[in-house]
Design brief:
alpha+beta, four-stranded antiparallel sheet, 8 helices
């Protein structure tokens, strides 16, 4: 059955399917939308008591529900200046060292930071010998993405690609999954060096958005596009630890990359298959520089 599920993903028109689902998710269909949201809440066991708007009828579209805001205080931010905060609710897929430019995807599978970041060698070199963490957002999770540390945006890259599912089954069986799916790469300059936040698309992920650019995809493309940003002056885009930086409309994965010697260690309990909660302690920085 697992082999069949993977084989079907190679055969399905994933981009077309995702765009159709995206249009349905954006539709404001009254009672039909409300009933679909109610089914989703029940099926996935979503705790709506955490949501700023707790009733299914509060949302005019499925997208509005899926990207729902949380109540103030339900995700306390780790304010310890020696620790980064978790950027999302989800589950750690893998985390650890970037060895010889390679990132672990799953047992028996790895891929290159160079491919993940869109093929720019100078950029990939900034993360040689550093650390990574891959966090999977399931359908039930909160789908806004937040900053682990204060950062100034220096670059954004759109990388075209496939739209395979990014669930654990697919990660175990599709080589180079996160470096072959469509993705948006955001590079931030921080007190501990460069940080990459890679928002990976997936089957039926209707949209990837950032707070500074809005919707980055769709539409999709067949070329890599790069935007460079001023890191000083009035035009600099600075986001503080815990601030929202983007969101997924339907679930996906975030891959974080850090430079060599930026992190001392991941926080206690941060390991493969560990559940994450946005704002909790994520990793300790390697020196006493305050965030």
């Amino acid at each position: 059955m697992d082999k069949l599920k993977i084989a079907l993903q190679y055969l399905l028109p994933k981009h077309l399917l995702s765009r159709v689902v995206g249009k349905l998710a954006a539709a404001e269909a009254g009672a039909l939308t409300t009933n679909a949201i109610r089914w989703f809440i029940k099926h996935y066991g979503i705790n709506m008591a955490e949501a700023q708007l707790p009733e299914a009828a509060d949302y005019r579209s499925f997208n509005a529900f899926f990207t729902r805001a949380l109540k103030a205080g339900v995700r306390p931010l780790c304010n310890d200046p020696l620790y980064l905060a978790h950027p999302v609710d989800g589950t750690v897929s893998q985390c650890g060292a970037i060895v010889n430019g390679r990132i672990i995807q799953a047992k028996g599978h790895d891929y290159s930071a160079l491919a993940l970041l869109g093929g720019e060698e100078a950029l990939a070199a900034r993360f040689d010998g550093g650390d990574f963490a891959t966090i999977y957002l399931a359908p039930k999770d909160y789908h806004r993405i937040h900053m682990p540390i204060d950062g100034v945006l220096s670059k954004m890259i759109y990388v075209p690609g496939e739209l395979f599912s990014v669930n654990p089954l697919t990660a175990r069986h599709v080589p180079g999954l996160f470096a072959r799916n469509e993705r948006v790469v955001a590079i931030f300059e921080t007190s501990i060096g460069p940080m990459a936040m890679v928002l990976v698309g997936a089957t039926i992920v209707a949209s990837i958005e950032t707070v500074w650019a809005g919707t980055v995809t769709p539409p999709t493309g067949d070329k890599v596009f790069t935007w460079d940003y001023d890191t000083q002056g009035d035009n600099a885009i600075t986001l503080r630890k815990g601030e929202e930086m983007g969101r997924f409309k339907l679930g996906s994965t975030v891959v974080l990359l850090f430079a060599k010697d930026a992190l001392a260690e991941f926080a206690e309990g941060v390991e493969a298959e560990a559940v994450t909660r946005m704002g909790a302690a994520f990793a300790k920085i390697a020196d006493s520089t305050e965030i």
